[in-house]
Fold each of these.
Amino acid sequence: EAGVTQSPTHLIKTRGQQATLRCSPISGHTSVYWYQQALGLGLQFLLWYDEGEERNRGNFPPRFSGRQFPNYSSELNVNALELEDSALYLCASRPSTDPYEQYFGPGTRLTVT
Amino acid sequence: LAKTTQPISMDSYEGQEVNITCSHNNIATNDYITWYQQFPSQGPRFIIQGYKTKVTNEVASLFIPADRKSSTLSLPRVSLSDTAVYYCLVGLSGGYQKVTFGIGTKLQVIP
């Protein structure tokens, strides 16, 4: 069974630009979560999508947004990038039948210069 | 959402049993306790989940006392490859809608 995939692996942007990160969940999983992990910090919840709808978001500014497509893949967009946005962005998916176990992708390392 | 408290770091020698305790004093009746493992530059990986008493799988054991205000992840005979960060999560019955994993416990296994 293929795991959660994310692209790109690394992304380098300059301050003020926009970044787009992509995630493909495990086949059959309808929920997708996005997390930010800054260096030395824990995972901070960003967004939760389920069945194409945004279900909840963490304490992040509106310039962090995303969407989930009909095939359940997801996209995270970060506008007006700031240096503090440099982090590992992790995507996780879970099946609708299990509310607890999330399966994580390898992450996208975003560097803002 | 139940807040959790874990030690920031632990060291252990290879072959020893490691116990990592997590405190969650305000755990709710419907909350389950879940542990994840994270290696550097990788996403967390589910280890074990429980509600009460003891749960064991091929990787670890989870001990939960009757009051459920704490839980202990037990890793038998650790090896160097068990060096990782371990997160304790206490979630809502509806899933981790707004969970922050926190800093976790950094376990360093020493040869």
Amino acid sequence: QLQLQESGPGLVKPSETLSVTCTVSGGSISSPDYYWGWIRQTPGKGPQWIGSIYFSGRAHYNPSLKSRLIISIDRSKNQFSLRLTSVTAADSALYYCARQSEVEIDNWGQGTLVTVSS
Amino acid sequence: EIKMTQSPATVSGSPGERVTLSCRASQTVANSLAWYQQKPGQAPRVLIYGASTRATGIPARFSGSGSGTEFTLTISSLQSEDFAVYYCQEYNNWPSLTFGGGTKVEIK
């Protein structure tokens, strides 16, 4: 059974860099059938897609975040990661990692809460 | 950038009732539309993809319809476990995604 688990800092200071890693177990991150994505959500709002990466390393980013965002993949560790620079309070959210097929997000992590505050 | 608008923001229903949720895209997404259910403290769960195809294990009381810019999710007979928030999500430029703001289904 596929499982995704996020690990993140919990608290990040304004203007610093947020880094979150997703570890995939029970399946290979090298499958050609899926993208691996990051999605965030704040209370009472709809989820926001951040970006996604393919096993080859090809990444797609939300245009609103693209200038501050890098998503990477480490196939040897079955992990993919998110780096978001110059964070502000608006980046405080629950960050999910997920597996995307062509038609659905069929597996989600439990989410990791990130708060941006001094 | 495609914007997804859901209505109403909240719908109230009693167990056994039929409810209909709407989703509108700011430009056509063909049938590249999925619906998700989210309960408190949980990640969203896919219900429908391709506008009308039920995902694995989803009960037949959930149905989706529409194409282009107008979509509907219908729950034919509300069950207690269906009270949740529902999101539509387009994937016309996959893997890019856009979610709607959600509709909360609450108990009348």
